[in-house]
């Protein structure tokens, strides 16, 4: 399998990670991973800078959210990964992930693109609800420690437990795929019409449940409250509009449903960690570098 691909890997020192891999350059190395067609796997406690993107990577990626929130990058699409959710990033394509909450705890697997993992292949990344994410996280955490022990290591037993828990999770995820997809589709409409007055009770009515039950479903399957999901869609749309370089901050604020620029700016900074004006300035600098002015002699 060719391992030539493009990668953006920005992980700051605040993040703590444990891992085990099949190759000689992995530390620790566990050659028995080859029997399961696993290239690399581990657990992460992401804080500070954490942003990874790959283009053309010849392996599938599984991310299992345990605490906090991350964001899945799938070309131009963005998906939120919350607790007890599983993200599948199929091999190849332009995909990645980054931290969204202050602290993001998750487990991850890099799986070979072979027939054994064919059910993970596809054109798009996806996020589904799962159970017992903590169990898999701590089993994998234990494996990473056991693999470092030279004598009387129980890495083989730990690996078997990890694989059993992973297969249980994948089987359950297939069965529960429809419900989170329906919820996600309901909120995706906000991205294309962010200025509308989106109300939680109306969305709950459209889904066919009470507002209280709707909130419980969103937290369980999407990892956030309905109001937080509405804000996420508006902020993602605002970021896209600002990145185009065709709109001012005040224009974008109105376009995504904010009457006050100050309120929009505070929300944008809270969501992305930088003011909206910085996005506009960065885009203008990029345009200036691409199309420099020419002064006649």
From TrEMBL:
Source organism of this protein record: Deefgea piscis
All residue ranges annotated as the HTH araC/xylS-type domain in the record: 181-282
PROSITE patterns noted in UniProt: HTH_ARAC_FAMILY_1, HTH_ARAC_FAMILY_2
Protein name, UniProt field: Helix-turn-helix transcriptional regulator
Ranges that cross the membrane: none
Signal peptide interval: none
Alphabetically ordered keywords of this record: Activator, DNA-binding, Transcription, Transcription regulation
Record has Transcription as a keyword: yes
GO molecular function: DNA-binding transcription factor activity; sequence-specific DNA binding
UniProt-listed InterPro entries: AraC_XylS_family_regulators, Homeodomain-like_sf, HTH-like, HTH_AraC, HTH_AraC-typ_CS
PANTHER family to which the protein is assigned, alphabetical: ARAC FAMILY TRANSCRIPTIONAL REGULATOR (PTHR46796:SF7), HTH-TYPE TRANSCRIPTIONAL ACTIVATOR RHAS-RELATED (PTHR46796)
């Amino acid at each position: 399998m060719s391992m030539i691909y493009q990668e953006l890997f920005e992980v700051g020192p605040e993040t703590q990670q444990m891992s085990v891999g099949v190759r000689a350059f992995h530390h620790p190395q566990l050659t028995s991973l080859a029997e399961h067609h696993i290239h690399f796997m581990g657990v992460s406690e992401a804080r500070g800078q954490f942003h990874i993107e790959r283009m053309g990577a010849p392996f599938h990626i599984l991310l299992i959210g345990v605490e906090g929130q991350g964001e899945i990058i799938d070309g131009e699409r963005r998906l939120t990964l919350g607790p007890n959710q599983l993200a599948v990033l199929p091999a190849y394509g332009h995909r990645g992930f980054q931290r969204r909450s202050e602290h993001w705890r998750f487990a991850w697997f890099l799986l070979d693109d072979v027939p054994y993992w064919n059910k993970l292949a596809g054109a798009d990344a996806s996020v589904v609800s799962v159970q017992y994410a903590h169990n898999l996280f701590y089993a994998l955490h234990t494996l990473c420690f056991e693999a470092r022990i030279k004598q009387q290591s129980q890495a083989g037993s730990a690996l078997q437990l990890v694989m059993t828990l992973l297969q249980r999770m994948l089987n359950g995820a297939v069965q529960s795929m429809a419900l989170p997809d329906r919820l996600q589709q309901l909120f995706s409409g906000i991205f294309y019409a962010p200025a509308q007055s989106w109300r939680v009770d109306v969305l709950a009515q459209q889904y066919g449940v009470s507002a209280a039950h709707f909130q419980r479903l969103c937290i369980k399957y999407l990892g956030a409250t309905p109001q937080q999901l509405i804000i996420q869609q508006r902020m993602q749309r605002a970021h896209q509009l600002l990145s185009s370089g065709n709109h001012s901050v005040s224009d974008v604020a109105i376009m995504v449903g904010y009457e006050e620029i100050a309120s929009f700016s505070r929300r944008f900074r809270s969501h992305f960690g930088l003011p909206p004006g910085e996005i506009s300035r960065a885009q203008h600098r990029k345009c200036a570098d691409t199309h420099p002015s020419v002064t006649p002699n």
